[in-house]
Structure prediction request, 237 residues.
Amino acid sequence: MKRVSLEQELRANAYPGRGIVIGRSEDGTKAVAAYFIMGRSENSRNRVFVEDGEGIRTQAFDPAKLTDPSLIIYAPVRVLGNKTIVTNGDQTDTIYEGMDHQLTFEQSLRSREFEPDAPNYTPRISGILHIEGGRYNYAMSILKSDGGDPASCQRFTFAYENPKAGEGHFIHTYQGDGSPLPSFEGEPTPVSIPNEIGTFTDLLWDSLNEDNKVSLFVRFIDIASGAYETRIVNKNK
Prediction:
C-alpha cells in the first residue's frame, strides 16, 4: 500500500472514532505509538487520559455526568516487560494476562470479539510493540462484525517485522460518521512518522475534528535503551 499523509487522513474524516498509530521514527531510533479517542455523546466526551504506572487509563472528567462506564473506562496502554500494549478497550487486560501466561498476541484475543454496542458493534482494535536486543517489531489487530451481523466475528492480525524508519500504520474503528457507524475496512494505512514527539503530537491533535476529539496519548521509546517519553493531551481541562 502507498504511504499517505496522516494529517490528510484525519482531516478528511470527521469521525474515525478511536485510532491507533504504531511505527518507527524517521531516524530509526524510536518505536512510536499513539492512541486517540473521540466522542459524539456527552458520556463519551466526558473523559480524560491519566497516567497509570507505565501505562494510562481513561477517567471521567466530571464523575457526576458519568452514566455508563462499561465501554469507556479502561486502560488503553499497559506495559509487560519489553512489550507495550495499546488498545481501544478492556482487551488491553486480556492481552496482558494472556501474554503473561505465554499466549501470543493473537491467541490472547481469541476470547474476545467486537463491542456489544448494537447497532454499531464497534471493532476492537489492538496493537503491541516488542523491543528486544536492539530489535523492534509490532503487530496490530481488529476484531469486527461481518457487515454489522453480530453472529459473525472477523479477526485480522497484521504483523510488521523490522519496520522501516519513518513509517507507521494507522488503524481506527470507523470508516467515518454514520448511523450505524461503519466499521474500518482493509489493512492498516501506511503513514509517515517524524523524529520529534512534539511534532507528532501536534500533528495528530491539530488534525482531529475539533468537535469530536477527546484525548490523545503519544509515546516514543528508544529502541536501544528502552527509555521512553510520553505526551498526553486532553480536551477537558
Remarks:
- The longest strand covers residues 149-161.
- The radius of gyration is 16 Å.
- Residues 102 and 108 are 9 Å apart (CA to CA).
